[in-house]
Structure formats: structure tokens, C-alpha cells
Design a protein that fits this description.
Blueprint (H helix, E strand, L loop, with lengths): L2 H22 L21 E6 L6 H17 L5 E6 L4 H13 L4 E4 L8 H9 L4 E4 L9 E5 L1 H16 L7 E6 L5 H14 L5 E6 L5 H15 L4 E6 L2 H13 L15 H9 L5 E3 L2 H16 L10 E3 L7 E6 L2 E3 L5 H5 L6 H4 L5 H7 L3
Parallel strand pairs: 1-2, 1-3, 3-4, 4-5, 5-11, 6-7, 6-8
Antiparallel strand pairs: 9-12, 10-11
């Protein structure tokens, strides 16, 4: 990450911390959170890890191995991680929580399919003496800790990028807003942040909440938007993530757009990065997965051992059901063709060879990716 990005990241983290602390009160005011009773546990722990789906590449390619590696490092290789993926099924995830409770895990890391539906499972875990870390999405119920990215900032970054791409033509037509799933609390935060940047500066022709974040649903929504608005009126698309951006761009191409309008994204998925290289997608939001995974692992291990989170947490966050949850919010970066080398390549997420397959070689050469 270059010096400018690093400064921006630090500023974002500091702002998130200041706002959260101002809103929620100090750590002393809000209880100990993590001061468990009973005998302290050693490194021989069992940590449950529940991820929400396997359609988005990040969960099994990055999050799972990074969390497993960090937990191993923190426990001298003695802890065991028990993993399950809910495959976008909230009922299945509730059953997986029950299984983790039955198996008496020492702590549970949960990325909720549905933040409301998981609340009952979180309550059961709490009653069984199992601390719960909400990972990436702010689950409801009595969670002990939370780590994610500054999700309103994600939306603001996306909105700013779209305005940058549109330039002085921002009001010459209409944009389409393709938000994420209403079951994901992050989607509401992305939307809020984006609208804070876009309102009054663009005309929104159509807006959708995309069921289950599925690219095929975004594709169908985009086809409907083109039909309703006409292709000559659409000047840009706010897409909440890269998977949906792929479906949107497919619809734009099929709809007869010879010059694609700027399309946003998020997650820096390989296909998204390649579309950015090719000039089909304007930007993505690069979210460094390693610090988020590390925070989840550190909090889960500390809570499993009955330790406090004072040295780990960086802020406090409110959920609809709980106040002042100890949290770590990781800053994000706007990823465009101009900083691919300084972000996902420099951080080892992808190699040039990963990105610059034969199909993208000419575009990579033009950007100096060799």
C-alpha cells in the first residue's frame, strides 16, 4: 500500500474509532465483555467457524485459511478449528450453530447469512457459555465481539468513484443502483454510504435490493432497468459488489451498449480485477482480508481463554439488539486500474500471472502489469 493510501487508511480507522467511541461511550462505561468466569483455558481450544456462502470467492479462498492460520499461530498449533459453510441458507446455519453448541466449542466465529435469524442461535451459545464473535456482518443477539470493515465508508468510496467516473456528465442521464441483499446488514450500510455521496448529484432511474447477492439476480434486475429506462438514458451503475457487477456487465453487453457505462464493485475478486484491467468495470473496493481475519482470530482465542479484549478492540459498535460491542473496523481502499500493482499485487492477493491470463495480456501490458 503506498504512502497516500496508508495515510488514508489510518485516517479512516481513526475516524471510525472516534465516531464509535463518541456514540457508544467508553469501554469502562459498557462493561467488561470477555471477562469470563471459571478456570482459564490454555491453547488446547476448539474454535467454531461458520461462514455464510460459497458463491463469493473471498470466504473459502481467503477468510477461512487466514483465520485458521492465525488461530494456529496464537495457540502454538494446539487449537482446532471446526468449519461449516451455510451455502446461503439461514436455517442450515442455525442448525450449524446448534451443532457447535452440542460439540462444546470454546468460542464461535459467525458470519451470518441473515443477521436477524441468527439471533436465537447466538442467544443459545451465550447460555451455553460459548462466546460469539460476529465476523464481517453484525449479527443480532448477545454477541461478544465484532470485526468488519467500515461499511459505510465502503459505500462512500463506491459513490465517490462513480461520481469521479461520470465527471461533469453526472446529471446527463440516470444511474441504476444495484444494492445487496436485505438480509445482510452490511448491504444497508453500503447503500447508506453510497447515497450520502450520490444524492443530489445524480438521478437514480432504478434501484434494486438484490436477493441473496446473486449475480444472476443482478443480471435480471439490470435487464429490467434497461427495458424500463432505455439504454440511451443509463450513464452509470452502482453495483454493491463484484459478483453482481459481472451479472450487470453481461446484461449491459447483451443490451447493446457499445461503450459500457462505469460500474462499481467490491471485494477485489479476481474476475472483477480482470474486468477493471479490461476497462469493463470502473472500480472495486479492496478490503484487506488478513487484518479482518486476524482480528476475528485474536478475539475468539482471547474470549475462549476468558481474557478481556481491551488490547485488541479499536472501537465500539451498536447492533439493533446490543450496545457498545467491542469491535475492530478495518479501513478499505478504492481499487482502480491505476493502483492494482500497489494493492492486490503488492499485498500478495494475486500475482500478475493470476490476473494477466492470455485474454487480458494486451490490457495488462498497456497498464504496465508485467
Amino acid at each position: 500500500m503506498n504512502t497516500q493510501m496508508r495515510r488514508a487508511a489510518v485516517a479512516v480507522a481513526a475516524t471510525a474509532m472516534a465516531v464509535s467511541l463518541a456514540a457508544c461511550g467508553s469501554a469502562k462505561e459498557s462493561g467488561d465483555n470477555g471477562d469470563k468466569t471459571g478456570a482459564a483455558k490454555g491453547d488446547d481450544l476448539t474454535i467454531g467457524l461458520l461462514l455464510p456462502e460459497n458463491q463469493t470467492a473471498r470466504y473459502e479462498k481467503f477468510d477461512k485459511p487466514l483465520i485458521e492460520k492465525k488461530i494456529s499461530e496464537l495457540t502454538n498449533g494446539k487449537a482446532k478449528v471446526v468449519y461449516a459453510n451455510a451455502k446461503q441458507d439461514a436455517t442450515l446455519q442455525t442448525q450449524q450453530v446448534d451443532t457447535m453448541i452440542t460439540n462444546k466449542v470454546d468460542a464461535l466465529i459467525v458470519d451470518a447469512v441473515d443477521s436477524k435469524a441468527i439471533a436465537g442461535g447466538v442467544k443459545k451459545a451465550k447460555e451455553a457459555g460459548i462466546p460469539v464473535v460476529a465476523f464481517d456482518r453484525l449479527a443480532e443477539g448477545p454477541i461478544d465481539a465484532y470485526t468488519s470493515f467500515d461499511n459505510e465508508e465502503v459505500g462512500r468510496v463506491q459513490g465517490k468513484a462513480l461520481l469521479e467516473a461520470l465527471g461533469d456528465k453526472a446529471k446527463d442521464g440516470q444511474i441504476v443502483m444495484m444494492n445487496g441483499a436485505i438480509t445482510d446488514p452490511n448491504a444497508a450500510l453500503f447503500k447508506k454510504g453510497a447515497k450520502a455521496e450520490l444524492e443530489g448529484k445524480v438521478n437514480v432511474g432504478k434501484e434494486y435490493d438484490t436477493k441473496e447477492w446473486k449475480p444472476e439476480n443482478a443480471n435480471a434486475n439490470m435487464e429490467a432497468a434497461i427495458s424500463a429506462l432505455g439504454k440511451d438514458k443509463i450513464i452509470g451503475v452502482y453495483s454493491a459488489n463484484d459478483g453482481m457487477a459481472g451479472g450487470i456487465i453481461t446484461a449491459l453487453k447483451a443490451g447493446g451498449f457499445s461503450n459500457l457505462p462505469p460500474v462499481t464493485g467490491q471485494d477485489a475478486e479476481l474476475a472483477g480485477v480482470q474486468r477493471i484491467v479490461a476497462g469493463e468495470q470502473f472500480m472495486s473496493v479492496y478490503k484487506p482480508y488478513a487484518p479482518e481475519a486476524a482480528a476475528a482470530a485474536e478475539m475468539a482465542v482471547a474470549l475462549a481463554k476468558g481474557e478481556k479484549l481491551g488490547s485488541i478492540e479499536t472501537s465500539r459498535v451498536d447492533s439493533p439488539t446490543n450496545k457498545a460491542i467491542p469491535s475492530v473496523l478495518v479501513p478499505v481502499v478504492s481499487l482502480t486500474k491505476d493502483n492494482i500493482k500497489d494493492t492486490v499485487i503488492k499485498d500478495g492477493v494475486y500475482t500478475v500471472a493470476d490476473i494477466c491470463t492470455p485474454k487480458y495480456k494486451a490490457a495488462c501490458d498497456a497498464l504496465g502489469l508485467k
